[in-house]
Amino acid sequence: MIIYSHTLTPRLQYIVDFLSQYYQLTIRLICDEEKYLIDKDPHRINYSYHRLSPEEIWIHSHVLLFESTIRPVKIECFDHHHYKAFFKAEGDIGFDLFAGMFYLITRYEEYLPHQKDMYGRFAHQNSLAFKEGFLHLPLVNIWLEDFRHLLKQKFPGLQLSKSNFQFLASYDIDIAWSFKNKGFKRNGGAIAKAFFSGKWKLMRHRMKVIRGKQSDPYDAYEWMDKLHQQYNIAPIYFFLVAEQMGKFDKNIDTKNISFQRLVKDVASIYKIGLHPSWASGDHPQLIKKEKAWLEKMTEQMVTSSRQHYIRFELPASYRLLLSAGITNEYSMGYGSINGFRASITTPFYWYDLKEEAKTALHIHPFCFMDANAYYEEKKSPAEALNELVAYYKIVKDVGGTMITIWHNSFLGSDAAFEGWREAYSEFLRRIL
Protein backbone atom coordinates (compact mmCIF):
# COMPACT_ATOMS: atom_id res chain seq x y z
CA MET A 1 0.00 0.00 0.00
CA ILE A 2 1.09 3.57 -0.64
CA ILE A 3 0.08 6.67 1.31
CA TYR A 4 0.61 10.13 -0.10
CA SER A 5 0.89 13.27 1.99
CA HIS A 6 2.09 16.70 0.97
CA THR A 7 4.28 16.79 4.09
CA LEU A 8 6.08 14.03 5.97
CA THR A 9 6.36 14.38 9.73
CA PRO A 10 7.30 12.13 12.68
CA ARG A 11 3.65 12.18 13.78
CA LEU A 12 2.38 10.91 10.45
CA GLN A 13 5.14 8.31 10.23
CA TYR A 14 4.15 7.08 13.70
CA ILE A 15 0.56 6.52 12.60
CA VAL A 16 1.67 4.80 9.38
CA ASP A 17 3.93 2.50 11.42
CA PHE A 18 1.00 1.66 13.66
CA LEU A 19 -1.24 0.90 10.68
CA SER A 20 1.46 -1.35 9.23
CA GLN A 21 1.60 -3.29 12.48
CA TYR A 22 -2.17 -3.40 12.96
CA TYR A 23 -2.99 -4.73 9.50
CA GLN A 24 0.33 -6.58 9.02
CA LEU A 25 0.82 -4.61 5.85
CA THR A 26 3.80 -3.00 4.12
CA ILE A 27 3.00 0.70 3.67
CA ARG A 28 5.10 3.24 1.78
CA LEU A 29 4.74 6.90 2.69
CA ILE A 30 5.68 9.47 0.03
CA CYS A 31 5.31 13.22 -0.44
CA ASP A 32 5.85 13.47 -4.20
CA GLU A 33 2.49 13.95 -5.89
CA GLU A 34 3.69 13.02 -9.37
CA LYS A 35 5.32 9.81 -8.19
CA TYR A 36 2.19 8.95 -6.27
CA LEU A 37 -0.02 9.34 -9.33
CA ILE A 38 2.16 7.16 -11.59
CA ASP A 39 2.97 4.53 -8.95
CA LYS A 40 1.87 1.04 -9.95
CA ASP A 41 0.58 0.10 -6.48
CA PRO A 42 -3.23 -0.09 -6.87
CA HIS A 43 -3.81 0.30 -3.12
CA ARG A 44 -3.44 3.99 -2.46
CA ILE A 45 -4.48 6.45 0.22
CA ASN A 46 -4.32 10.19 -0.27
CA TYR A 47 -3.84 12.05 3.01
CA SER A 48 -4.05 15.67 1.94
CA TYR A 49 -6.46 18.54 1.40
CA HIS A 50 -7.59 17.59 -2.13
CA ARG A 51 -8.62 14.44 -3.97
CA LEU A 52 -6.04 13.39 -6.55
CA SER A 53 -7.47 10.23 -8.12
CA PRO A 54 -10.83 8.42 -8.35
CA GLU A 55 -9.07 5.12 -7.56
CA GLU A 56 -7.78 6.24 -4.15
CA ILE A 57 -9.17 6.48 -0.65
CA TRP A 58 -9.05 10.14 0.24
CA ILE A 59 -8.71 11.22 3.88
CA HIS A 60 -8.96 14.98 4.22
CA SER A 61 -6.16 15.80 6.63
CA HIS A 62 -6.43 17.86 9.79
CA VAL A 63 -3.46 20.04 10.67
CA LEU A 64 -2.59 18.05 13.83
CA LEU A 65 -0.16 15.60 12.23
CA PHE A 66 1.71 18.38 10.46
CA GLU A 67 2.46 20.33 13.63
CA SER A 68 5.32 19.98 16.08
CA THR A 69 3.81 21.88 18.99
CA ILE A 70 1.44 20.92 21.78
CA ARG A 71 -1.52 23.23 21.99
CA PRO A 72 -5.23 23.09 22.86
CA VAL A 73 -7.06 21.47 19.95
CA LYS A 74 -10.72 22.14 19.22
CA ILE A 75 -12.61 18.87 19.45
CA GLU A 76 -16.21 18.52 18.29
CA CYS A 77 -17.58 15.00 18.45
CA PHE A 78 -20.33 13.77 16.18
CA ASP A 79 -22.11 10.46 15.61
CA HIS A 80 -20.62 8.41 12.80
CA HIS A 81 -21.72 4.84 12.02
CA HIS A 82 -23.27 4.53 15.50
CA TYR A 83 -20.11 5.62 17.33
CA LYS A 84 -18.31 8.87 18.12
CA ALA A 85 -15.77 10.53 15.84
CA PHE A 86 -14.13 13.95 15.65
CA PHE A 87 -12.04 16.06 13.24
CA LYS A 88 -14.97 15.99 10.83
CA ALA A 89 -13.95 16.54 7.22
CA GLU A 90 -14.66 15.80 3.57
CA GLY A 91 -13.33 12.60 2.10
CA ASP A 92 -14.21 8.93 1.95
CA ILE A 93 -14.37 8.43 5.71
CA GLY A 94 -15.99 11.63 6.93
CA PHE A 95 -13.32 12.53 9.46
CA ASP A 96 -9.54 12.48 9.83
CA LEU A 97 -8.97 8.96 11.11
CA PHE A 98 -5.21 9.40 11.38
CA ALA A 99 -5.34 12.60 13.45
CA GLY A 100 -8.06 11.16 15.68
CA MET A 101 -5.98 8.05 16.35
CA PHE A 102 -2.93 10.16 17.14
CA TYR A 103 -4.83 12.40 19.55
CA LEU A 104 -6.19 9.45 21.54
CA ILE A 105 -3.22 7.05 21.49
CA THR A 106 -0.59 9.62 22.43
CA ARG A 107 -2.81 10.91 25.26
CA TYR A 108 -2.40 14.37 23.77
CA GLU A 109 -4.81 15.89 26.28
CA GLU A 110 -2.63 14.78 29.19
CA TYR A 111 0.15 17.09 28.01
CA LEU A 112 -2.18 20.08 28.27
CA PRO A 113 -3.01 21.91 31.53
CA HIS A 114 -5.49 19.75 33.44
CA GLN A 115 -7.08 19.05 36.79
CA LYS A 116 -5.48 16.35 38.93
CA ASP A 117 -7.29 13.95 41.22
CA MET A 118 -6.66 13.42 44.93
CA TYR A 119 -3.57 11.32 44.16
CA GLY A 120 -2.05 13.86 41.81
CA ARG A 121 -2.98 11.91 38.68
CA PHE A 122 -4.69 13.05 35.50
CA ALA A 123 -8.36 12.99 36.54
CA HIS A 124 -10.43 10.81 34.25
CA GLN A 125 -13.19 13.43 34.32
CA ASN A 126 -10.90 15.61 32.16
CA SER A 127 -10.76 13.11 29.34
CA LEU A 128 -12.61 13.43 26.07
CA ALA A 129 -13.61 9.77 26.31
CA PHE A 130 -15.35 10.33 29.65
CA LYS A 131 -17.02 13.59 28.65
CA GLU A 132 -18.29 12.17 25.37
CA GLY A 133 -19.35 8.81 26.78
CA PHE A 134 -16.98 6.44 24.97
CA LEU A 135 -14.59 5.54 27.79
CA HIS A 136 -16.06 2.03 27.80
CA LEU A 137 -15.11 1.54 24.14
CA PRO A 138 -11.78 0.89 22.39
CA LEU A 139 -12.79 3.56 19.88
CA VAL A 140 -9.54 3.44 17.91
CA ASN A 141 -10.00 -0.28 17.28
CA ILE A 142 -13.61 0.28 16.26
CA TRP A 143 -12.52 2.98 13.81
CA LEU A 144 -9.82 0.71 12.39
CA GLU A 145 -12.20 -2.21 11.94
CA ASP A 146 -14.60 0.09 10.14
CA PHE A 147 -11.70 1.30 7.99
CA ARG A 148 -10.82 -2.34 7.26
CA HIS A 149 -14.23 -2.78 5.61
CA LEU A 150 -13.64 0.30 3.47
CA LEU A 151 -10.21 -0.97 2.42
CA LYS A 152 -11.63 -4.34 1.41
CA GLN A 153 -14.47 -2.70 -0.47
CA LYS A 154 -12.18 -0.32 -2.35
CA PHE A 155 -9.30 -2.77 -2.84
CA PRO A 156 -10.71 -6.34 -3.05
CA GLY A 157 -7.28 -7.84 -3.68
CA LEU A 158 -5.66 -6.30 -0.62
CA GLN A 159 -4.65 -8.85 2.01
CA LEU A 160 -5.28 -7.58 5.55
CA SER A 161 -4.48 -9.57 8.68
CA LYS A 162 -6.63 -9.42 11.77
CA SER A 163 -5.29 -10.40 15.16
CA ASN A 164 -7.16 -12.88 17.31
CA PHE A 165 -8.56 -12.03 20.72
CA GLN A 166 -6.11 -12.50 23.56
CA PHE A 167 -6.58 -12.42 27.31
CA LEU A 168 -3.82 -11.50 29.75
CA ALA A 169 -4.33 -11.99 33.46
CA SER A 170 -2.21 -9.66 35.56
CA TYR A 171 -1.84 -9.23 39.30
CA ASP A 172 -0.55 -6.46 41.51
CA ILE A 173 0.99 -7.79 44.72
CA ASP A 174 0.82 -4.67 46.86
CA ILE A 175 0.44 -6.45 50.19
CA ALA A 176 1.51 -10.07 49.96
CA TRP A 177 -0.17 -11.05 53.27
CA SER A 178 -2.68 -9.36 55.50
CA PHE A 179 -1.29 -10.58 58.85
CA LYS A 180 1.62 -12.93 58.22
CA ASN A 181 5.22 -11.75 57.94
CA LYS A 182 4.42 -8.19 59.02
CA GLY A 183 6.95 -8.27 61.84
CA PHE A 184 6.53 -7.86 65.59
CA LYS A 185 6.16 -4.08 65.55
CA ARG A 186 3.44 -3.89 62.90
CA ASN A 187 1.48 -6.87 64.21
CA GLY A 188 1.86 -5.78 67.81
CA GLY A 189 0.54 -2.32 67.00
CA ALA A 190 -2.38 -3.77 65.03
CA ILE A 191 -3.32 -6.15 67.85
CA ALA A 192 -3.19 -3.34 70.41
CA LYS A 193 -5.32 -1.11 68.20
CA ALA A 194 -7.92 -3.87 67.74
CA PHE A 195 -7.94 -4.52 71.48
CA PHE A 196 -8.53 -0.92 72.53
CA SER A 197 -11.13 -0.37 69.81
CA GLY A 198 -13.08 -3.43 70.88
CA LYS A 199 -12.53 -5.38 67.65
CA TRP A 200 -12.09 -8.68 69.46
CA LYS A 201 -12.94 -10.92 66.52
CA LEU A 202 -10.37 -9.24 64.29
CA MET A 203 -7.76 -9.44 67.02
CA ARG A 204 -8.35 -13.18 67.57
CA HIS A 205 -8.29 -13.79 63.84
CA ARG A 206 -4.96 -12.02 63.43
CA MET A 207 -3.43 -13.92 66.33
CA LYS A 208 -4.58 -17.29 64.94
CA VAL A 209 -3.06 -16.47 61.55
CA ILE A 210 0.22 -15.38 63.10
CA ARG A 211 0.38 -18.63 65.10
CA GLY A 212 -0.31 -20.66 61.96
CA LYS A 213 -3.74 -21.92 63.02
CA GLN A 214 -5.56 -20.18 60.17
CA SER A 215 -4.59 -19.22 56.65
CA ASP A 216 -3.85 -15.59 55.91
CA PRO A 217 -6.82 -13.75 54.31
CA TYR A 218 -4.62 -12.49 51.45
CA ASP A 219 -2.88 -15.80 50.79
CA ALA A 220 -4.55 -16.72 47.51
CA TYR A 221 -1.47 -17.95 45.66
CA GLU A 222 -2.24 -21.67 45.68
CA TRP A 223 -5.83 -21.02 44.59
CA MET A 224 -4.55 -18.76 41.78
CA ASP A 225 -2.09 -21.46 40.65
CA LYS A 226 -4.89 -24.00 40.32
CA LEU A 227 -6.97 -21.52 38.35
CA HIS A 228 -4.10 -20.87 35.94
CA GLN A 229 -3.61 -24.59 35.41
CA GLN A 230 -7.32 -25.18 34.91
CA TYR A 231 -7.64 -22.54 32.18
CA ASN A 232 -4.09 -22.69 30.80
CA ILE A 233 -3.36 -19.08 31.74
CA ALA A 234 0.09 -17.47 31.58
CA PRO A 235 -0.27 -14.40 33.83
CA ILE A 236 2.12 -11.66 34.83
CA TYR A 237 2.70 -10.64 38.46
CA PHE A 238 3.81 -7.14 39.46
CA PHE A 239 5.56 -6.96 42.84
CA LEU A 240 5.74 -3.89 45.05
CA VAL A 241 9.21 -4.04 46.64
CA ALA A 242 9.52 -0.68 48.38
CA GLU A 243 12.43 -0.46 50.78
CA GLN A 244 10.54 1.77 53.20
CA MET A 245 6.96 1.64 54.42
CA GLY A 246 4.74 4.63 53.78
CA LYS A 247 1.12 5.71 53.60
CA PHE A 248 0.75 4.12 50.16
CA ASP A 249 3.58 1.58 50.32
CA LYS A 250 2.49 -1.11 52.77
CA ASN A 251 4.11 -4.18 51.34
CA ILE A 252 6.06 -6.81 53.25
CA ASP A 253 9.64 -5.91 54.20
CA THR A 254 11.95 -6.92 51.35
CA LYS A 255 14.32 -8.41 53.96
CA ASN A 256 11.65 -10.89 55.01
CA ILE A 257 12.70 -14.42 54.01
CA SER A 258 9.13 -15.59 53.36
CA PHE A 259 8.50 -12.67 51.03
CA GLN A 260 11.73 -13.34 49.17
CA ARG A 261 10.72 -16.98 48.80
CA LEU A 262 7.31 -15.96 47.45
CA VAL A 263 8.90 -13.72 44.82
CA LYS A 264 11.32 -16.47 43.79
CA ASP A 265 8.59 -19.12 43.63
CA VAL A 266 6.29 -16.97 41.49
CA ALA A 267 9.15 -15.95 39.18
CA SER A 268 10.09 -19.61 38.66
CA ILE A 269 6.68 -20.24 37.08
CA TYR A 270 5.30 -16.96 35.78
CA LYS A 271 6.39 -13.74 34.14
CA ILE A 272 7.01 -10.96 36.65
CA GLY A 273 7.27 -7.20 36.55
CA LEU A 274 8.07 -4.30 38.84
CA HIS A 275 5.36 -2.37 40.66
CA PRO A 276 7.26 0.89 41.28
CA SER A 277 6.51 2.23 44.74
CA TRP A 278 4.56 5.39 45.45
CA ALA A 279 7.77 6.81 46.94
CA SER A 280 9.53 6.36 43.60
CA GLY A 281 7.19 8.99 42.18
CA ASP A 282 8.80 11.51 44.52
CA HIS A 283 12.29 10.00 44.47
CA PRO A 284 12.92 8.67 40.93
CA GLN A 285 16.22 7.02 41.85
CA LEU A 286 14.26 4.39 43.77
CA ILE A 287 12.97 2.73 40.59
CA LYS A 288 16.40 1.46 39.59
CA LYS A 289 17.05 0.24 43.15
CA GLU A 290 13.73 -1.61 43.33
CA LYS A 291 14.27 -3.09 39.88
CA ALA A 292 17.79 -4.22 40.86
CA TRP A 293 16.41 -5.93 44.00
CA LEU A 294 13.78 -7.79 41.97
CA GLU A 295 16.34 -8.88 39.40
CA LYS A 296 18.74 -10.09 42.06
CA MET A 297 16.03 -12.03 43.85
CA THR A 298 14.70 -13.69 40.69
CA GLU A 299 18.00 -13.98 38.82
CA GLN A 300 16.38 -12.65 35.65
CA MET A 301 16.04 -9.37 33.79
CA VAL A 302 12.97 -7.31 34.67
CA THR A 303 11.70 -5.29 31.71
CA SER A 304 8.00 -4.90 32.58
CA SER A 305 6.32 -2.57 35.05
CA ARG A 306 3.03 -1.14 36.24
CA GLN A 307 2.84 1.95 38.42
CA HIS A 308 1.52 1.57 41.97
CA TYR A 309 -1.87 3.35 42.22
CA ILE A 310 -1.53 3.87 38.43
CA ARG A 311 0.46 6.97 39.36
CA PHE A 312 2.24 8.39 36.32
CA GLU A 313 2.65 11.66 34.49
CA LEU A 314 3.50 12.16 30.84
CA PRO A 315 6.17 12.34 29.65
CA ALA A 316 8.32 12.26 32.80
CA SER A 317 7.25 8.87 34.19
CA TYR A 318 7.64 7.02 30.92
CA ARG A 319 11.03 8.59 30.27
CA LEU A 320 12.15 7.48 33.71
CA LEU A 321 11.05 3.91 33.06
CA LEU A 322 12.91 3.83 29.76
CA SER A 323 16.07 5.06 31.45
CA ALA A 324 15.72 2.25 34.00
CA GLY A 325 15.53 -0.41 31.28
CA ILE A 326 11.77 -0.94 31.23
CA THR A 327 10.48 -1.74 27.74
CA ASN A 328 6.95 -3.01 28.49
CA GLU A 329 4.58 -0.81 30.47
CA TYR A 330 1.16 -1.87 31.80
CA SER A 331 -0.22 1.30 33.46
CA MET A 332 -2.33 2.65 30.59
CA GLY A 333 -5.69 2.78 32.30
CA TYR A 334 -7.22 4.73 35.15
CA GLY A 335 -6.91 4.07 38.86
CA SER A 336 -10.30 5.67 39.42
CA ILE A 337 -12.61 4.14 36.81
CA ASN A 338 -12.59 1.18 34.45
CA GLY A 339 -12.44 1.66 30.71
CA PHE A 340 -10.03 2.38 27.87
CA ARG A 341 -7.84 5.36 28.81
CA ALA A 342 -6.18 5.55 25.39
CA SER A 343 -9.33 4.31 23.61
CA ILE A 344 -7.46 1.28 22.36
CA THR A 345 -7.13 -2.38 23.34
CA THR A 346 -4.05 -3.17 21.26
CA PRO A 347 -0.46 -2.76 22.51
CA PHE A 348 1.35 0.20 20.94
CA TYR A 349 4.63 2.07 21.20
CA TRP A 350 4.67 5.27 23.20
CA TYR A 351 5.13 8.49 21.26
CA ASP A 352 6.90 11.19 23.29
CA LEU A 353 5.06 14.32 22.23
CA LYS A 354 7.61 16.71 23.72
CA GLU A 355 10.44 15.01 21.88
CA GLU A 356 8.28 14.35 18.80
CA ALA A 357 9.60 10.81 18.59
CA LYS A 358 8.41 7.23 18.70
CA THR A 359 10.07 5.38 21.59
CA ALA A 360 10.93 1.78 22.42
CA LEU A 361 8.43 1.68 25.31
CA HIS A 362 5.67 -0.81 24.48
CA ILE A 363 2.38 0.19 26.12
CA HIS A 364 -0.08 -2.55 27.14
CA PRO A 365 -3.44 -0.95 28.05
CA PHE A 366 -5.78 -2.52 30.61
CA CYS A 367 -9.53 -2.00 30.86
CA PHE A 368 -10.52 -3.52 34.23
CA MET A 369 -9.16 -3.39 37.76
CA ASP A 370 -10.89 -4.99 40.74
CA ALA A 371 -10.12 -2.01 43.00
CA ASN A 372 -11.83 0.39 40.59
CA ALA A 373 -14.95 -1.75 40.50
CA TYR A 374 -15.00 -2.16 44.29
CA TYR A 375 -13.81 1.14 45.75
CA GLU A 376 -14.68 3.64 43.03
CA GLU A 377 -17.62 2.21 41.11
CA LYS A 378 -19.08 0.53 44.23
CA LYS A 379 -19.97 -2.59 42.30
CA SER A 380 -20.95 -5.94 43.75
CA PRO A 381 -19.11 -9.06 42.55
CA ALA A 382 -22.06 -9.86 40.27
CA GLU A 383 -22.03 -6.36 38.78
CA ALA A 384 -18.27 -6.54 38.27
CA LEU A 385 -18.71 -9.87 36.48
CA ASN A 386 -21.20 -8.25 34.11
CA GLU A 387 -18.75 -5.42 33.49
CA LEU A 388 -15.96 -7.88 32.71
CA VAL A 389 -18.13 -9.86 30.30
CA ALA A 390 -19.17 -6.64 28.54
CA TYR A 391 -15.51 -5.67 28.04
CA TYR A 392 -14.73 -9.17 26.84
CA LYS A 393 -17.39 -9.01 24.13
CA ILE A 394 -16.18 -5.59 22.97
CA VAL A 395 -12.50 -6.56 22.88
CA LYS A 396 -13.16 -9.91 21.23
CA ASP A 397 -15.20 -8.25 18.50
CA VAL A 398 -12.20 -6.12 17.44
CA GLY A 399 -9.61 -8.86 17.93
CA GLY A 400 -7.88 -7.00 20.75
CA THR A 401 -6.00 -7.93 23.89
CA MET A 402 -7.97 -7.79 27.14
CA ILE A 403 -5.82 -7.12 30.20
CA THR A 404 -7.34 -7.26 33.68
CA ILE A 405 -5.79 -6.33 37.02
CA TRP A 406 -6.54 -8.29 40.17
CA HIS A 407 -5.00 -8.15 43.63
CA ASN A 408 -4.31 -11.19 45.77
CA SER A 409 -6.35 -9.50 48.54
CA PHE A 410 -9.52 -9.75 46.42
CA LEU A 411 -8.88 -13.40 45.63
CA GLY A 412 -8.22 -14.61 49.17
CA SER A 413 -10.54 -15.32 52.08
CA ASP A 414 -10.98 -11.81 53.50
CA ALA A 415 -14.67 -11.34 54.35
CA ALA A 416 -14.54 -7.79 52.93
CA PHE A 417 -14.07 -9.28 49.45
CA GLU A 418 -16.51 -12.15 49.70
CA GLY A 419 -17.68 -13.27 46.28
CA TRP A 420 -14.90 -11.64 44.27
CA ARG A 421 -12.78 -14.74 43.70
CA GLU A 422 -15.93 -16.56 42.56
CA ALA A 423 -16.69 -13.71 40.13
CA TYR A 424 -13.18 -13.93 38.68
CA SER A 425 -13.36 -17.71 38.36
CA GLU A 426 -16.76 -17.50 36.67
CA PHE A 427 -15.45 -14.88 34.25
CA LEU A 428 -12.58 -17.13 33.20
CA ARG A 429 -14.97 -20.06 32.81
CA ARG A 430 -17.08 -18.02 30.41
CA ILE A 431 -14.30 -16.76 28.17
CA LEU A 432 -11.72 -19.55 28.14
Description:
This protein has helices at about 10-25, 35-40, 95-105, 130, 140-155, 185-195, 200-210, 220-230, 255-265, 285-300, 315-325, 370-375, 380-395, 420-430, and strands at about 1-5, 30, 45-50, 55-60, 80, 85, 165-175, 235-240, 270-275, 305, 330, 350, 355-365, 370, 400-405. The chain is α/β, with parallel strands linked by helices and about 425 residues long. The strands form four sheets. It has a five-stranded parallel sheet with strand order 9-8-7-15-14. Helix 1 (about 10-25) packs across helix 3 (about 95-105) and helix 6 (about 185-195) packs antiparallel against helix 7 (about 200-210).
Q: Strands of the largest sheet, in order across it? A: 9-8-7-15-14
Beta strand %: 5-15%
CATH superfamily of the largest domain: Glycoside hydrolase/deacetylase
Give the structural class.
alpha/beta
- Overall morphology: elongated
Mean pLDDT: 94
Integer-rounded radius of gyration: 24 Å
- The N- and C-terminal alpha carbons lie at a distance of 36 Å
Q: How many domains make up the 3D coordinates?
A: 3
Bin the helical content: 25-40%
Can you summarize the main beta sheet?
A: 5 strands, parallel
- Give the count of helical stretches: 14
CATH class category label of the largest domain? Alpha Beta
User: Could you please say which CATH topology of the largest domain applies here?
Assistant: TIM Barrel
